[in-house]
Design goal:
With 141 residues, the protein is mainly beta. The protein is 0% helix and 55% strand. It is built from no helices and twelve strands. Strands 1-10-9-8-11-12 form a six-stranded mixed β-sheet, with no helix packed on it. Strands 3-4-5-6 form a four-stranded antiparallel β-sheet, with no helix packed on it. Strands 2-7 form a two-stranded antiparallel ribbon.
Length: 141
């Protein structure tokens, strides 16, 4: 069974999300906005005035593209938290912009995107992460 990195799991269910209130979020954790997974860089909360409820502004960084984004909502608004899986794999070969690797735990073949700045060779171990059906190599050993 092969897992792809464009949100396509062949024969495997895509990991989902769960909903929590914005007030429970912490810096360094993750959230999902507009079908993308983000790391929370900063949280600013403002007290309510005479009417209305407290607001929260989240400064976010996309886990896959690195782009920055802000999200504003009341502290009682629900926001999605992606279920993130991490693991290690052994590189079998590199073909164009795809890294083919075997998962160390399940022995499944994986196809991951090749990123700049990584020192990848066949037979070496890598660390990967998956969120919302997208994969990324987070560390080469």
């Amino acid at each position: 069974m092969i897992r792809g990195y464009y949100g396509v799991h062949l024969g495997i269910e895509v990991a989902g999300t769960e909903k929590v209130e914005i007030r429970t979020l912490k810096v360094g954790r993750y959230c999902a906005v507009d079908d993308s997974a983000f790391k929370i860089l900063k949280i600013s909360k403002s007290k309510p005035g005479k009417h209305g409820s407290a607001k929260a502004r989240l400064d976010l960084e996309d886990l896959f593209t690195g782009s920055k984004k802000s999200h504003v909502g009341t502290v009682t608004d629900k926001i999605s938290i992606p279920i993130i899986e991490k693991g290690s794999a052994t590189v079998t070969h590199i073909q164009g912009v795809d890294v083919h690797a075997m998962d160390a735990k399940t022995f499944e073949m994986m196809v991951l995107p090749l990123e700049d700045g990584l020192n990848l060779e066949s037979g070496r171990e890598i660390q990967w992460m998956e969120a919302l059906g997208r994969f990324r190599i987070i560390r080469d050993h």
